[in-house]
Design goal:
CATH superfamily of the largest domain: Metallo-dependent phosphatases
Distance between the termini: 56 Å
CATH class of the largest domain: Alpha Beta
Oligomer: single chain
Largest sheet: 7 strands, mixed
Number of strands: 25
CATH architecture of the largest domain: 4-Layer Sandwich
Bound molecules: fe (ii) ion
CATH topology of the largest domain: Purple Acid Phosphatase, chain A, domain 2
Shape: globular
Structural class: alpha+beta
Helix content: 10-25%
Mean pLDDT: 86
Strand content: 25-35%
Number of domains: 2
Length: 493
């Protein structure tokens, strides 16, 4: 090639590159800005398509986690569904031991057509034992004659999931309990497939042997939009069917049900808890009368996990909460609800929760309160109301909180796992002693790994990239008194 031609070629190439690069860079910016408006995000329309083959399989606990577990799944057809379970073996021969149980089926009308939800509970299991299970839904599209003759009758009748492994929880031996570890996440809510997938998968890579996962509400943005649940299950595929999931509803799980009948005398449909919630999650039926998997407690390996619904009927849950807290044989108590006792973001205060529930948390020595809703991160030390002088104000209780640390009280956390971010509430410099949070940040997607041993609780918050952002340890002495140690690493907030 002659030099002139070479130069001309280079210029041409440069021009082409610029014309390709500059608009793309410009587009990136506007695309990001557009994402601020999450309400208008478009979700994948193919994710909701249901077939005969079980999908959206979710494992949870309805009964004693050492002796039972429950599964829900979905298929298109409304015919019967079944599940099978066997103790795991080192090869495929375990199938000979498989026990078949019936599932329960209920229809679910969605904005994308009617599907069917199925649920099954495996009972009479042995503690700390590895099982394999699978779920099946009756075929509505029959196999070809040749295939039917070629497979066992159960496969001819039912479309099955893969075999999935799960180890039951351990039972306490006297006062000795096995360690529990779990991942807790705040709101996933928006762009769940696009932006939350990497977070939930990173958390799984980080703690693959976790005992369970906990979601503190606003799992999706529109509780009745089926495609958003499709994104949630896509993000957690292979995880939600193998690790028990616990969750409490956020305000976004409450929505107007387009298929509900308008109550007499009402001008419009009221917002109600998405019907999917009760069909999807199988939590213990031990909440106040009328609750539907939105209020419950689970005891696992010396830890009582209590889930409350902070969206409504706060007072009505208080009597139940008192009973559950006062009659608690577990060494550790962890509580979760969506709206925070102390808000980390601007103009999102919830004084009613402090006035009703917080006193009980302290009276009955709750160790940790895990929350969401604020789309930022805030973590307190142990906080006691006793030393606060501003209990009845409309603002966050603040004065004297740092002083109160040593008097005990729960540690409160607000966290966010999805991409929607809110501005952090700023405290004036002179009020540094009144800021309830010891660690707080905005603009970061976070997950938390919490390990609870006999006498020690270790809490870690990690960024979506797997980097340690926050840490503390609570040590419980023989009398049950907590000693708190802040171990937050020196990183930029
Ligand atoms: Fe929320």
């Amino acid at each position: 090639m002659r030099p002139v031609l070479k130069l001309t070629s280079c210029l041409c190439l440069l021009t082409v590159c610029c014309s390709l690069t500059l608009p793309v860079l410009g587009e990136e910016k506007s695309r990001w800005e557009h994402k601020k408006n999450y309400e208008k995000m478009i979700v994948e329309p193919t994710l909701p398509v249901a077939t005969d083959v079980p999908d959206r399989i979710l494992l949870s606990w309805k009964q004693d986690p050492a002796r039972s577990f429950s599964v829900t799944w979905r298929s298109k057809a409304g015919a019967d569904a079944v599940a099978e379970i066997a103790p795991a073996e080192t090869g495929p021969q375990f199938v000979k031991q498989a026990r078949l149980i019936p599932g329960e089926t209920s229809p679910l009308k969605t904005n994308l057509g009617t599907v069917h939800m199925h649920a099954a509970t495996f009972e009479d299991l042995k503690p700390n034992t590895l099982y394999v299970y699978r779920v099946g839904s009756r075929r509505t599209v029959p196999l070809s004659k040749a295939d039917q003759e070629d497979v066992e009758p159960l496969t001819a009748e039912y479309a099955w999931s893969e075999w999935i492994q799960y180890r039951t929880a351990q039972e306490s031996e006297g006062d000795v309990v096995a360690p529990v570890s779990f991942v807790y996440v705040g709101d996933a809510q928006n762009d769940v497939k696009s932006h939350w997938s990497r977070l939930i998968r990173e958390s799984y890579r980080d703690a693959p042997r976790m005992t369970f996962m906990l979601h503190a509400g606003d799992l999706v943005n529109h509780g009745n939009h089926d495609q958003e649940w499709g994104e949630w299950f896509y993000a957690g595929s292979g995880i939600f069917s193998a690790i028990p999931q616990l969750a409490v509803p956020g305000n976004h799980e409450y929505a107007r049900d387009p298929f509900a009948e308008k109550p007499e005398g009402e001008e419009s449909l009221p917002k109600t808890l998405s019907r999917r919630w009760g069909q999807r999650f199988e939590f213990p039926d031990n909440g106040p009368k009328g609750s539907t998997e939105n209020i419950f407690y689970v005891d696992v390996q010396g830890v009582r996990i209590i889930g409350l619904d902070s969206n409504r009927e706060i007072e009505a849950q208080t009597e139940w909460l008192k009973k559950v807290l006062s009659n608690n044989p577990n060494r550790w108590t962890i509580l979760t609800h969506h709206h925070p006792i102390y808000s980390s973001s601007v103009k999102r205060d919830n004084p009613e929760l402090r006035k009703t529930w917080q006193r009980l948390y302290e009276k009955y020595h709750v160790d940790l309160v895990l929350q969401g809703h604020d789309h930022s991160y805030g973590r307190t030390g142990p906080i006691s109301l006793q030393l606060s002088r501003q209990l009845e104000t409309e603002e966050n209780v603040a004065t004297g909180l740092r002083v109160a640390d040593q008097s005990g009280g729960p540690v409160y956390v607000v966290s966010v796992s999805g991409p929607k971010m809110y501005e952090l509430k700023q405290y004036p410099a002179e009020a540094i002693q009144t800021d309830p949070f010891r660690r707080r940040t905005q603009g970061k997607q976070l997950y938390q790994v919490i390990t609870v041993e006999q006498d020690r609780l270790v809490y870690q918050a990690k960024t979506v990239t797997g980097k340690l952002y926050d840490q503390f340890t609570i040590t419980k002495d023989k009398a049950g008194k907590n000693v708190f140690e802040d171990q937050a690493p020196p990183v930029e907030e």
